[in-house]
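Look over this record before class:
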Amino acid sequence: MAEILVSIQAYCKILLHAVKHPHCAVNGVLLAEDGKSKDRKTVKFVDCIPLFHLTLSLSPMLEAALLQVKFFFLVYM
């Protein structure tokens, strides 16, 4: 089983969005660092991208949001 680490930036974004919208579900994407070493099984989440403050019953909205996230990282990273 892999060890899971969450950066301070990702953790703070998750908490701040949950506090800002306590009446809604907060849905988003956690971004993990690419693990270079194969001997240690560690997953480190370095950032998060909040997507919705509502339920995810509409899959076209989720697909469009994930495509935007993918496009952003292909162009700017």
In short: The longest strand covers residues 42-52. The mean pLDDT is 83.
